[in-house]
User: Fold this.
Amino acid sequence: MDSIPLSTLFIILAILLILSAYFSGSETGLLSLNRYRMRYLAEKGNRGAKKAEKLLKKTDKLLSLILICNNLVNISASALATIIGMRLYGDAGVAIATGALTFVMLVFSEIYPKTIAALYPEKVGFLSSHLLSPLMKLFTPLVFLMNLIINGLIKITGLKAEAKANHLSTEELRSIVNESGKFIPSSHQEMLLSILDLEEVTVDDILVPRNDIAGIDIDDDWKSIMRQLNHAAHGRVLLYKGNMDENVLGFLRVREAYRLMLDKNEFSKETLIRAADEIYFIPESTALTAQLLNFRQNKERIGLVVDEYGDIKGLITLEDILEEIVGEFTTSTTPSIEEEVMQQSDGSILIEGSTNLRDLNKLFDWNLDTEDARTFNGLILEHLEDIPEEGTEFELNGLKITILEVADNMVKQAKVVKL
Assistant:
C-alpha cells in the first residue's frame, strides 16, 4: 500500500463511497416500490420493472445480497481511509479518518441516497435492478450460505419465518380508495366503498318487509284482482292463496297478465296461476355479495327472504342490491330517507319509525346497533322491551329520543336530539 500514490487511494475511496450510496439507495428504492404499479409496468414490458419484480419475489435473498455488498464496500472504505489517515497524520490519522469517514458516509452514502430513493422509488429501484440482477447470480452461493445461517438462527430462537402474502385486506383497500383523491371521482369512490360494504350486509338488512310486499290473493273476487293488476306499482306481483305465509303460488309478471287480458277466453285465475314464475327463496343471513352471484347463477331477479323456520320475512330484488352500490335509480313507492327524516330549526330531527337504521347511520354518522333491529321502530322496541306511550323520553347511544306518535303497536314518529 505504501507504493500506491495518495491520489489513487483517494480515487478508490471515492468509488467505494459511491458504491455504498448505490447499495443504500437500492435497498430503499426497491423496498419502497408500489408492488401493484410495478406489476402493471412489468406487464406493459418495462424491463426494469420485470427485473425488480423478480428480485422482490425473494426479498430475503435480495436483502442478503445488498447487505453483503454494502458491508464489503463499507469495510473496504474504512480500511482505506485508515491507511490514508496514517500516511497523512501518523497515529492521530486513525481517529481523524474514523470521524471524517463516519460523517461523509452518513451524509453522502446513507441519508442522501436513501432520501432520494424514497422520493423516486421507481427511477432508483428499476435502474438498480439492472446491476443487482447479475450480482445476484454472482453471489448466489454466498447469499445461500447467509440465508441458511439466518434461518438456522430463527429456528434456534423459536421464531417462525412465515412469508407475508402480498394481498390487500378490505380495510387497506378502503384506505386506498379514500386517499385516492383526484385520481378517482367522488361518485366512483362511493360506489367502490359500497362494493366493499356488501360483504358485511345481508339480505335481511335491505329487504322489503313482508307487510309491504305487493301481493294478490287469488281467492279474491275477479274485479278486485283486475283492479290490483291495473294499479300494480311494480313489474311483478306475488300470487298467494288465502294466506301469504302458508300458500304462495309464484311471482306474476304484470306484462304477462296484460298479454293474457287480450285473449278473454284464456284470461282466468287458472291461467294467471300457470303464468306465474316459481318462487325463489333466499335465507335471511345471505350476504349481498353472495346473493348477487346467486341471482346471476340462477338467472333470477327477485326472491322471497325466509328465516330459519321457513317463514317469509320479506322480498328482495336484484335492483335492491344494485342500488346499494350506485344509489337509488328506480322509482319506488317506498319513501326515501329524505322523506322519512325531517331536520327542525331547533336542531332536532323528526324520524319516521319505518326508517332503515343503516340509512340513518350513513346519513348522520351515527352508530346505532343494526344487529337485532332493522328499522328505527324496531330499535326503540328492542331497547325499551315494550311498546311506549306517546311522550316517552329516553337516551340511547348519545341521543335523546322522544316518542311523538304510536299507532298499530308501532312507533310511527319520534324526535331525536343529539346530546
